[in-house]
Amino acid sequence: MQIARILQSQGFGSRRECRSLVRAGRVTVNGNAVDDPFLEFPLDGLVFTVDDEDWEYREKACLMLYKPGAHECTHKPHFYPSIYTLLPPELTARGVQSVGRLDQDTTGLLLLSDDGQFIHTWSSGKKRIPKRYRVTLKHPHTPELIRQLLEGVLLHDEAEPVRAADCTPIDALTLWLTI
Protein backbone atom coordinates (compact mmCIF):
# COMPACT_ATOMS: atom_id res chain seq x y z
CA MET A 1 0.00 0.00 0.00
CA GLN A 2 1.21 3.54 -0.69
CA ILE A 3 2.73 5.27 2.34
CA ALA A 4 0.33 8.24 2.05
CA ARG A 5 -2.66 5.86 2.13
CA ILE A 6 -1.12 4.01 5.08
CA LEU A 7 -0.78 7.27 7.00
CA GLN A 8 -4.35 8.24 6.15
CA SER A 9 -5.68 4.88 7.34
CA GLN A 10 -3.89 5.39 10.64
CA GLY A 11 -5.47 8.79 11.26
CA PHE A 12 -2.70 11.18 10.24
CA GLY A 13 -5.01 13.27 8.06
CA SER A 14 -6.44 13.40 4.57
CA ARG A 15 -4.49 11.85 1.69
CA ARG A 16 -3.34 15.32 0.67
CA GLU A 17 -2.16 16.08 4.22
CA CYS A 18 -0.38 12.72 4.40
CA ARG A 19 1.37 13.30 1.06
CA SER A 20 2.58 16.62 2.48
CA LEU A 21 3.88 14.88 5.62
CA VAL A 22 5.92 12.53 3.46
CA ARG A 23 7.22 15.23 1.11
CA ALA A 24 8.26 17.34 4.13
CA GLY A 25 10.58 14.51 5.27
CA ARG A 26 8.63 13.81 8.46
CA VAL A 27 8.17 10.07 7.76
CA THR A 28 10.64 7.18 7.94
CA VAL A 29 10.18 3.46 7.38
CA ASN A 30 12.75 1.03 8.80
CA GLY A 31 15.00 3.98 9.63
CA ASN A 32 14.99 5.30 6.06
CA ALA A 33 13.51 8.67 5.19
CA VAL A 34 10.62 8.43 2.74
CA ASP A 35 9.99 11.38 0.42
CA ASP A 36 7.77 9.71 -2.19
CA PRO A 37 4.15 9.51 -0.95
CA PHE A 38 3.36 6.88 -3.60
CA LEU A 39 6.06 4.44 -2.46
CA GLU A 40 4.51 1.05 -1.64
CA PHE A 41 5.11 -0.91 1.56
CA PRO A 42 3.80 -4.29 2.75
CA LEU A 43 1.48 -3.87 5.73
CA ASP A 44 2.43 -6.99 7.66
CA GLY A 45 4.59 -5.94 10.62
CA LEU A 46 5.05 -2.42 9.25
CA VAL A 47 6.52 0.06 11.72
CA PHE A 48 6.97 3.64 10.60
CA THR A 49 7.97 6.91 12.25
CA VAL A 50 6.18 10.24 12.02
CA ASP A 51 7.88 13.25 13.59
CA ASP A 52 10.28 10.93 15.46
CA GLU A 53 7.44 8.91 17.00
CA ASP A 54 7.19 5.20 16.18
CA TRP A 55 3.86 3.79 14.97
CA GLU A 56 2.91 0.22 14.26
CA TYR A 57 0.40 -0.27 11.44
CA ARG A 58 -2.92 -1.60 12.71
CA GLU A 59 -5.72 -2.53 10.34
CA LYS A 60 -8.29 -1.87 13.07
CA ALA A 61 -8.07 0.12 16.28
CA CYS A 62 -9.44 -1.33 19.50
CA LEU A 63 -8.66 0.17 22.86
CA MET A 64 -9.79 0.43 26.44
CA LEU A 65 -10.44 3.76 28.13
CA TYR A 66 -11.18 4.30 31.79
CA LYS A 67 -13.90 6.95 31.56
CA PRO A 68 -13.68 9.58 34.26
CA GLY A 69 -16.76 11.28 35.63
CA ALA A 70 -18.01 14.53 34.10
CA HIS A 71 -17.47 13.31 30.51
CA GLU A 72 -20.04 12.41 27.87
CA CYS A 73 -19.84 9.42 25.51
CA THR A 74 -20.71 11.45 22.43
CA HIS A 75 -18.96 13.42 19.71
CA LYS A 76 -21.35 16.34 20.31
CA PRO A 77 -21.46 16.86 24.09
CA HIS A 78 -24.05 19.11 25.71
CA PHE A 79 -22.81 19.73 29.25
CA TYR A 80 -19.43 18.05 29.78
CA PRO A 81 -16.37 17.38 27.63
CA SER A 82 -16.50 14.40 25.27
CA ILE A 83 -14.55 11.24 26.06
CA TYR A 84 -13.03 11.68 22.59
CA THR A 85 -11.09 14.72 23.85
CA LEU A 86 -9.11 12.26 26.01
CA LEU A 87 -7.78 10.43 22.93
CA PRO A 88 -4.84 11.25 20.66
CA PRO A 89 -6.00 13.01 17.47
CA GLU A 90 -4.84 10.05 15.35
CA LEU A 91 -7.46 7.83 17.01
CA THR A 92 -10.29 10.32 16.70
CA ALA A 93 -9.35 10.84 13.04
CA ARG A 94 -9.71 7.08 12.53
CA GLY A 95 -13.31 7.42 13.67
CA VAL A 96 -13.20 5.30 16.81
CA GLN A 97 -16.57 4.89 18.53
CA SER A 98 -17.43 3.69 22.01
CA VAL A 99 -18.93 0.24 22.40
CA GLY A 100 -21.96 1.28 24.42
CA ARG A 101 -22.10 4.29 26.69
CA LEU A 102 -21.77 5.30 30.29
CA ASP A 103 -23.73 8.18 31.82
CA GLN A 104 -21.87 11.46 32.19
CA ASP A 105 -21.39 11.00 35.95
CA THR A 106 -20.45 7.31 35.67
CA THR A 107 -16.84 6.14 35.73
CA GLY A 108 -15.69 2.85 34.28
CA LEU A 109 -14.08 0.91 31.48
CA LEU A 110 -15.14 1.61 27.91
CA LEU A 111 -14.13 -0.25 24.78
CA LEU A 112 -13.56 1.88 21.68
CA SER A 113 -12.94 0.75 18.11
CA ASP A 114 -13.08 1.77 14.47
CA ASP A 115 -14.31 -1.74 13.58
CA GLY A 116 -18.05 -1.42 13.00
CA GLN A 117 -18.69 -5.17 13.12
CA PHE A 118 -16.87 -5.46 16.45
CA ILE A 119 -18.89 -2.55 17.87
CA HIS A 120 -22.18 -4.04 16.66
CA THR A 121 -21.37 -7.50 18.03
CA TRP A 122 -20.60 -6.18 21.50
CA SER A 123 -23.32 -3.54 21.76
CA SER A 124 -26.28 -5.24 20.10
CA GLY A 125 -28.87 -6.49 22.57
CA LYS A 126 -29.55 -9.43 20.26
CA LYS A 127 -26.19 -11.00 21.17
CA ARG A 128 -27.12 -11.03 24.87
CA ILE A 129 -23.57 -10.32 26.01
CA PRO A 130 -23.74 -9.73 29.78
CA LYS A 131 -22.53 -6.40 31.09
CA ARG A 132 -21.41 -6.14 34.70
CA TYR A 133 -21.57 -2.94 36.71
CA ARG A 134 -20.40 -2.01 40.18
CA VAL A 135 -23.27 0.15 41.41
CA THR A 136 -23.03 2.61 44.29
CA LEU A 137 -26.43 3.30 45.86
CA LYS A 138 -27.65 6.48 47.54
CA HIS A 139 -29.49 4.45 50.20
CA PRO A 140 -28.78 0.95 51.56
CA HIS A 141 -30.18 -1.85 49.42
CA THR A 142 -33.11 -3.93 50.61
CA PRO A 143 -34.33 -7.40 49.67
CA GLU A 144 -37.23 -5.62 47.89
CA LEU A 145 -34.83 -3.58 45.72
CA ILE A 146 -32.86 -6.67 44.74
CA ARG A 147 -36.10 -8.51 43.93
CA GLN A 148 -37.25 -5.59 41.73
CA LEU A 149 -33.95 -5.51 39.86
CA LEU A 150 -34.11 -9.26 39.21
CA GLU A 151 -37.78 -9.16 38.13
CA GLY A 152 -37.36 -6.08 35.93
CA VAL A 153 -37.49 -2.31 36.12
CA LEU A 154 -39.18 -0.17 33.47
CA LEU A 155 -36.78 2.57 32.36
CA HIS A 156 -37.88 5.92 30.89
CA ASP A 157 -37.51 5.19 27.16
CA GLU A 158 -37.92 1.41 27.18
CA ALA A 159 -41.02 -0.53 26.18
CA GLU A 160 -40.00 -3.65 28.11
CA PRO A 161 -38.64 -3.92 31.66
CA VAL A 162 -34.88 -4.34 32.02
CA ARG A 163 -34.08 -7.38 34.16
CA ALA A 164 -30.82 -7.96 35.97
CA ALA A 165 -29.31 -11.38 35.26
CA ASP A 166 -27.61 -11.20 38.65
CA CYS A 167 -27.54 -8.80 41.58
CA THR A 168 -24.94 -9.45 44.27
CA PRO A 169 -24.56 -7.15 47.28
CA ILE A 170 -20.99 -6.15 48.14
CA ASP A 171 -21.88 -4.01 51.13
CA ALA A 172 -24.86 -1.92 52.26
CA LEU A 173 -24.40 0.69 49.50
CA THR A 174 -22.72 -1.32 46.73
CA LEU A 175 -23.93 -4.02 44.33
CA TRP A 176 -22.55 -6.03 41.44
CA LEU A 177 -25.27 -5.79 38.80
CA THR A 178 -25.18 -7.96 35.67
CA ILE A 179 -27.53 -7.07 32.84
Describe this structure in words.
There is one protein chain. The protein is elongated and about 70 Å long. The protein has helices spanning about 5-10, 15-25, 90-95, 115-125, 145-150; strands at about 25-30, 30-35, 45-50, 55, 60-65, 95-100, 110-115, 130-135, 165-170, 175-179. The chain has a four-stranded antiparallel beta sheet with strand order 2-1-3-4. It starts with a helix and ends with a strand. The model has no long low-confidence stretch (mean pLDDT about 95). With about 180 residues, it is an alpha+beta fold. About 15% of the residues are buried.
Oligomer: single chain
Percent helix, as a range, is 10-25%
Shape: elongated
Please describe the biggest sheet, giving its number of strands, its sense, and whether it closes into a barrel: 4 strands, antiparallel
Alpha carbon gap, first and last residue: 43 Å
* Overall tally of structural domains: 3
User: CATH superfamily name of the largest domain?
Assistant: Pseudouridine synthase I, catalytic domain, N-terminal subdomain
Which architecture of the largest domain would the CATH scheme give at its second level? 2-Layer Sandwich
The helix-and-strand class reads alpha+beta
Radius of gyration: 22 Å
Number of E strands: 10
